[in-house]
């Protein structure tokens, strides 16, 4: 069996994981100040928000584009989504470790506060819990 101090750490880890599955994480919000035409900004989630590491991997992103120019968001330098002006886009069910936001207009810049990216770890749904009995929280008894 484990050493008593390791067993206590493991129990704490299990409690934290169960709580994260049930409640999700806090939302981590990024809003670029101004993006010039064609400019891209890269964000590493672990560096931008060190407290997000305990929830890793985050699995949800919501991109709000209230500006007048189109943007694109790239998740983990692999998958890219086009986000037209005035649209909210949700990206679910894939790990999010890093993202970038790019202004697609050649000459117009984005206004400060018009683009918002929210990333978080979503709570587990009842459907997911029913499909996978290994992720159900254990009853204390």
What is the topology?
Blueprint: H1 4-23, E1 28-30, E2 40-44, H2 45-48, E3 58-65, E4 71-75, E5 79-83, E6 87-96, E7 98-103, E8 115-120, H3 126-131
Antiparallel strand pairs: 1-8, 2-7, 3-6, 3-8, 4-5, 4-7
Word description of this protein:
The longest helix is centred in the N-terminal third of the chain and has 20 residues, at 4-23. The strands form 2 sheets. The protein has a 4-stranded antiparallel beta sheet, with no helix packed on it. Strands 2-7-4-5 form a 4-stranded antiparallel beta sheet. The protein has one domain (25-124): Jelly Rolls (Sandwich). The chain is built from 3 helices and 8 strands; from the N terminus they run αββαββββββα. A hairpin with a 3-residue loop joins β4 and β5. The protein is an alpha+beta fold.
Write a brief caption for the model.
This protein is of the alpha+beta class and 141 residues long.
Q: Descriptors for this entry?
A:
141 residues, alpha+beta, four-stranded antiparallel sheet, Jelly Rolls, elongated, 21% helix
Q: What is the residue-mean pLDDT, rounded to a whole number?
A: 84
- Amount of beta strand: 25-35%
Low-confidence stretches: none
Computed over alpha carbons, the radius of gyration is 19 Å
- The CATH homologous superfamily is named Jelly Rolls
**Alpha plus pi helix count:** 3
- How many discrete domains? 1
CATH architecture: Sandwich
Spell out the helices and strands N to C.
HEEHEEEEEEH
- Total strands: the figure is 8
> How can the largest sheet be summarized?
4 strands, antiparallel
CATH class bucket: Mainly Beta
| Basic shape | elongated
Percent helix: 10-25%
Structural class, please? alpha+beta
CATH topology: Jelly Rolls
**Cα distance spanning the termini:** 22 Å
């Amino acid at each position: 069996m484990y050493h008593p101090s390791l067993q206590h750490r493991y129990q704490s880890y299990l409690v934290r994981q169960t709580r994260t599955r049930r409640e999700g994480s806090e939302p981590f919000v990024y809003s670029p100040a101004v993006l010039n035409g064609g400019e891209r900004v890269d964000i590493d989630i672990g560096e931008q928000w060190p407290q997000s590491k305990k929830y890793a991997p985050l699995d949800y992103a919501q991109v709000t584009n209230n500006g007048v120019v189109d943007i694109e968001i790239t998740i983990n330098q692999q998958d890219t989504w086009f986000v037209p002006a005035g649209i909210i886009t949700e990206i679910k069910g894939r790990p999010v470790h890093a993202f970038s936001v790019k202004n697609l207009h050649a000459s117009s810049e984005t206004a400060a506060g018009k683009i918002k990216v929210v990333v978080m770890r979503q709570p587990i749904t009842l459907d997911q819990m029913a499909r996978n009995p290994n992720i159900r929280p254990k009853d204390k008894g």
